[in-house]
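Model it.
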Amino acid sequence: MDLIKSLSEEYMKPELPTMNVGDTVRVTVRVKEGNRERNQAFEGTIIAKKHGGINETITVRRISYNVGCEKVFPVHSPTIVSVETVRRGKVRRAKLYYLRDKIGKKAKVKERLNVKGA
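Modeled.
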């Protein structure tokens, strides 16, 4: 058990910002196209966080040209270059799946203004 724990701690990223459900984040991903590599940003709202430790994933949703797009990112993956928190959200739920049915201004999450300890 200690062997698995030590291996997973070795591959975890220590410099991640605090991410909560409802926050708007910009995830920069390393994309490989043929023999070239480039960085691509995906900005959206975190609607779910799952698992923990090395297996932790976040589901990020954004609306582009009136079409909702969701991506699941493994947080500690080597293909993820950076995760940057753009704005903090004020929510009272752990999963924001109800945002899938909302359109326009109703799909917005209120901003948390006074953040204690962050």
